[in-house]
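Example for tutorial group B:
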């Protein structure tokens, strides 16, 4: 079975700390504005283009 993309929105207390946590898990920032306190992050298992 082939599934499409999934999206989850999380409300966090400290966006900088959350970004660092998810970056350590292999996520990369895809878009958003950290100054407005929102980011779009994507997990990269094998290949993640420079974003």
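The residue assignment follows.
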């Amino acid at each position: 079975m082939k599934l499409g993309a999934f999206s989850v929105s999380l409300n966090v207390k400290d966006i900088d700390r959350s970004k660092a946590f998810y970056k350590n898990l292999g996520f990369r920032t895809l878009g958003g504005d950290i100054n407005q306190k929102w980011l779009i992050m994507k997990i990269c298992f094998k290949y993640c283009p420079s974003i």
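The longest helix spans residues 15-24. Compare this with the pattern of hydrophobic and polar residues in the output above.
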